[in-house]
Amino acid sequence: MFDSILVPTDGSEHATRAAEHGAALARAFGASLHVIAVIDTRTAGGPFSGDDLEDETLDRMTADAEETVAAITDAVDAAGAIQTTIRKGDPVDEICAYRDDHDVDLIAMGTHGRTGVGRYLAGSVTESVVRQADVPVLTVRATDRSRDTAPYDDILVPTDGSTPAAAAVEPACEIAAQFDARVHALNVVNLSNIATGSEYTLPKDLIESLESQGEKVTERIAARARESGVETVTRVVSGFPAADILEYADENGIDLIAMGTAGRTGLNRFLVGSTTERIIRHADMPVLAVNARDQRGDEA
């Protein structure tokens, strides 16, 4: 399924951890590994410089990028030779262009870049690539849980039964089969969508109906996983999706979360605050985000 994996890097610890996971998947699937560093000409020379940088500045940044790429190639154990490149321009545009030019099947990225302020920036390069890329994006935070790169023993596939959620099922099952992992199919009955007040009690028959629907959608995932000879677990809970997904992942030793994302809306923008986005920001383990906009018929 994965023949070519791209690892963008900015030299951060999170990017290095993502490269380690990308290399592990490359070894498992026999895929080629590509490492790219992009010199961000939008901000490098100040707010009014555009793409015109002084030669000295560009030379210094190119040298830094070369060191960053070399550090990644030294740090990871790839299946074969690693292809490296340095580009300049808008990082999101250059990463997506490289993906198109080289038929990349998977992008592995750190969720936090080198900002100097030690916190996550909404609207970061990683978020933008997740929104725009038409291939799965593996997002990784440098945490204790993400330190172990292989094998993945337990993979969580949250679902609400929608087409975007279903987009993650196939790659999750392929990875599970490759690592002989267990697939956990989880449905969270979203009480935030139907509860109208803190003192309002939902009718028991409504909850039971929604849980029954959840059992059906999780069983569909389990059936697909069993076709690949993968062990499965199904679970339906009532609560609040992001919080309950993270809690389930922590309590069940999940190594990887695979989720679909709706990508862009008809207004050509991302649904900020979505469950997938929150999981990417807060999960201690890697998250595989699979953009489903093509399946929904949206235009890029």
UniProtKB/TrEMBL annotation:
| Domain of life the protein comes from | Archaea
Domain UspA, chain residue ranges per copy: 1-141, 152-290
Entry similarity comment: Belongs to the universal stress protein A family.
Quote the protein name from its UniProt record. Universal stress protein
Its source organism is Haloarcula amylolytica JCM 13557
